[in-house]
């Protein structure tokens, strides 16, 4: 029987369990009420920021016709993934992190893991596609309107959702995977842990799935930065000779969009890198990462979903205008969908 020693009496007493009268139950990590309350409030504020921020992005891009561009449709799909993460995954992850137990059953554990992984992979694929979009817009501006249309963006979105769903479903809902990998763990997961048996192989497979798109994004943005810097010098020289034209303003918008999305990619890598590396290393050390450290890594990754709307607020004047119209409920007025958000 699991037990802990009382420092006041020197006697051993039973350790708190997730399920008191169930054999094989996980040991529950207890916190004082004040600490629990602070963690719950912190996680709840994070979830609220994720949900509201991405909801505003979804509503803005969907409502305003001027934002119906290939790039913005990819941003819309990315925001939808982050919104669904905040609504369907984070509430249950919050309870698991604070209570150190999974109280929602094995079946929902699989669903929760499926959604968690799918939304993560959807995000990284969409960021990769956005990098390709920006590469064409900056490096091949004459070919961009032909190469990257709304139809192409829709195909990218379909691929960006279908591949993660198919890839994740194979591991979570194929019994052969569990049966073939059960011998790899010295101890089977205790009841109340939501630890699936495929985690050892999962950590290694997710390594290339995460880093190959990241390597592609970094390569593209390095090229974008070099080309954009050269274009900025050329435009600066032209502006000294002629007055600023619409094409020049459009070119500056494209470069600013590339810079903003490059920042979003960098923050994504910063947030997800610790958790991804830990997932791979943890499979080598028989999942011995301290629960507190694991929770810090995973919530640091989760909060990345709240970053993109904040980046747009500080970077895009059109997004601030859209937010003002949405928040003040002017979107319910006739003709609001045709407002020119790019007008100075």
TrEMBL record:
What cellular component GO annotations does this protein have? plasma membrane
Q: Name one GO molecular function term.
A: trace-amine receptor activity
Q: What is this protein called?
A: Trace amine-associated receptor 5
Q: Name one Pfam family in it.
A: 7tm_1
Family of the protein in this entry: Belongs to the G-protein coupled receptor 1 family.
Transmembrane stretches, start-end:
37-61, 73-94, 114-132, 153-174, 207-228, 257-277, 297-319
Question: What is the membrane topology noted in the UniProt record heading this document?
Answer: Multi-pass membrane protein
Give its localization. Answer: Cell membrane
InterPro entries under this entry?
GPCR_Rhodpsn, GPCR_Rhodpsn_7TM, TAAR, TAAR1, TAAR_fam
Q: Which UniProt keywords apply?
A: Cell membrane, Disulfide bond, G-protein coupled receptor, Glycoprotein, Membrane, Receptor, Transducer, Transmembrane, Transmembrane helix
Domain G-protein coupled receptors family 1 profile residue range list: 53-312
Taxonomic path = Eukaryota, Metazoa, Chordata, Craniata, Vertebrata
